Backbone:
């Protein structure tokens, strides 16, 4: 006589959050403004504004843009703001920084948009394995939102978790 195998994990009331499920479509772009500077080092306002005005911003449509200057030149704040006014009409998010910082900003927006009331009083597993680049900071932000509402928080896979918090 054989016993029926019961999947206790599937039957549990544990909720799994997989940040990979929230991973947004859209290309990530790096915009280096070095070529818009005189000799790659000096910002001349008239030349810079001309470069900004004549640039094809549509290549960033529905994408995410990281603006930086690889030459190490000191760029005034207004120059980044001028670029942001152009990018705002074409991209989803634009930041000043590198691609790692861009991913952190993208996921900060994502985590902040989650309705955490659904996790109130529940046991939650934050799925750990991901095929996509999920910033470590996104998991930290997730904890910051879950701890006030969840009964238990675990990390890993539903069948093998590391306990993190229990109310």
Residues:
């Amino acid at each position: 006589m054989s016993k029926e195998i019961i999947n206790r994990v599937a039957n549990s009331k544990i909720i799994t959050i997989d940040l990979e499920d929230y991973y947004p479509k859209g290309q990530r772009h790096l915009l280096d403004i070095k070529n818009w500077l005189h000799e790659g080092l000096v910002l001349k306002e008239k030349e810079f504004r001309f470069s900004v005005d004549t640039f094809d911003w549509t290549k960033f449509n529905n994408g995410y843009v990281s603006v930086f200057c690889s030459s190490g030149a000191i760029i005034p704040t207004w120059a980044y703001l001028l670029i942001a006014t152009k990018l705002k009409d074409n991209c989803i998010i634009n930041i000043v920084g590198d691609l790692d910082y861009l991913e952190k900003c993208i996921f900060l927006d994502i985590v902040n948009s989650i309705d955490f009331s659904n996790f109130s009083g529940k046991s939650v597993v934050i799925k750990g394995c991901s095929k996509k680049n999920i910033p470590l900071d996104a998991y930290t932000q997730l904890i910051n939102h879950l701890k006030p509402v969840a009964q238990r928080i675990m990390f890993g896979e539903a069948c093998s978790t590391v306990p993190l918090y229990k109310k």
Observations:
- The chain has a mean pLDDT of 92.
- The longest strand covers residues 160-166.
- The two ends are 42 Å apart (CA to CA).
